[in-house]
Amino acid sequence: MRDVDVLPVLRRPLAREARTAVEAWATVAWLLAVEGRALVEDIEGGVEQPAMQHVAAVKLLELLADVDARLSASAPVAEVHLLAVALEHGMPAVLDATGDELVELFGVADGLDGGDPGPDAVTRLFDRIADGFPGDVPNPLLADGQGPVLRALRSWGKLANAAAIDASFLEPFLKDA
Amino acid sequence: MTARVESATAFLATRGLDLAKVGEIVRRAMGEVDVVLLTSSPVHGLANATSDLDTVCVSPGAAASLMATQMFAEGNHLEAVLFGTDHLDADLADLERVAALPLPEVVDAVRAWDKAHTVRRKYLERAVNGVSVDGTLPYADRLPALARAWTASSLDTAARAIAFASLAQRAGERRGTCGYAHTGFLHLADVVLSNHGDVFSNRKWYLLRWQRFLAGAGPSIEWKPAVDAVEQCRADVVAALRGDALVDVVGSLVEALAAVGDALDRQPSPPRFRVADGVQRMPFLPGAEMALVGSRAIVVDGGLDGVDVDDDPSTFDADLARRCLHAARVGAVEVSVW
User: Fold this and answer.
1) Domain for residue B51, yes or no?
2) Are residues B88 and B154 both part of a single domain?
3) What is the pLDDT of residues A75-113, one digit of tens each?
4) Residue B69 and residue B30 in contact, taking contact as beta carbons nearer than 8 Å
5) Are B164 and B291 in a shared domain?
């Protein structure tokens, strides 16, 4: 399996309307920090639970499909469509991989068949995406990770004010913080 | 139900804790709350080395937590949310009301639950399955209602995923069909599990719980054909994902859905696709239209004519299936399975 390119979207010099850009980038950072890191923790903790690792890997694939839509200036599809859209059309803003490569990378067939879902490859891939993301993506799962999370939320609130947009998109983040 | 307490106790021992100690840690952070419930994977016998200790606290007159409180104690990560006794009791009573409705109405009520209730679905399930730090399960008498509500919800998700799998197959989407099939299988498995009283919201556990169910006591006689059909689906989804062109994964899903419907004595209806309420269809160029969906817009090559039909999607021609699927993914077309 080749080493797929991560976050190709960052190399395209596309300026977006500030109103949509603030919400999209803050939401993506939040999804990676909170939901992505939690799924990676699940995968790492499930050494003796490959069936759980498999579904967590599929959920991570769906999360990245959601992120892909937001980084492509689009609304994500509903949850029931995420996996199908990712496997059929790929996720060109996040990963330079075909649907068949995604099936292999995320162990979609092997994991469902009771085999090795390839957890190390999945967590390595997520680390490359988090490392390649602009800035330090906070880690709320660490004991000292809460401060950076709250600082990020404050920064995004100020950003929303500066861009003259409604900051209510941050409210669900607070509930899940 | 003692199995829940035993699972929780055994897991806590691996972390150098017991139920009483969890109660102390949580009350130190949350104050003198009436009830502290240990919830999630430890009470289902599924916790592992990195599992957090999620708790739900209940106390008279308490306002519901806006945010979960995070605690770190003796190398463990604990989380607590607080609900007022009155709020939780009222929402559990409403769960009983909802569970007694006809199945399609249960689906609608569960879908709309979070907007109309203080205790969100996720925490409702945690409370019902929760083990109190005094070693009891104070809300376990609500498990049958919870099981019926969660069964209905997963059946709805499975039926919709299977309808989209059929559409994707007609549209010529080999991998898209597999994606919907994977979702359809997992939710069919959860229908069986929830109906048997093994109710746990988080999808990451569905497959492991399914394996545990098959390896354990297994189904009752009336559920055996449905369980066999769902397990056959899993094998067929794997084969389809590996590119086996001969496997009829949609046929396998439809058969399993019907078998599950038989066991429940309530079949979903054949899927019907409709242009969603409020969608504005505008001409774009000859042969294409733009659909305005709220504040969003999509271009549909070929337009949306013909998607409002009651036909089974397996009879759609490839072009109609493609247009219908494209519009459904962006919210311009809805599917009904009841």
Assistant:
1) yes
2) no
3) 999 999 999 999 999 999 999 999 999 999 999 999 999
4) yes
5) no
CB pair distance less than 8 Å for A146 and B70: yes
Q: Taking CB atoms and an 8 Å cutoff, what residues of chain B touch A44?
A: 50
pTM value is: 0.95
**Residues pairing with B69 in the sheet:** B80
Same domain, B125 and B14: yes
Number of H helices, E strands in chain B: 12, 10
- What's the total number of domains in chain B? 3
Give dist(CA B249, CA B182) in Å, integer: 10
Phi, psi of B268 (to 5 degrees): -60, 155
Same domain, B134 and B8: yes
Provide the sign of the torsion angle of the four alpha carbons A15, A16, A18, A23, taken in this order: negative
Q: What is the ipTM of this complex?
A: 0.94
Express each pLDDT in B136-179 by its tens digit.
999 999 999 999 999 999 999 999 999 999 999 999 999 999 99
Residue B143 lies in a domain: no
Pairwise CB contact (< 8 Å): B179 & A174? no
Q: Is B54 helix (H, G, I), strand (E, B) or coil?
A: strand
Question: Which residues in chain B touch residue A40, judged by CB atoms under 8 angstroms apart?
Answer: none
Cβ atoms B154, B242 nearer than 8 A: no
Residue in A81, A123, A171 to test binding to B, most B beta-carbons within 10 Å: A81
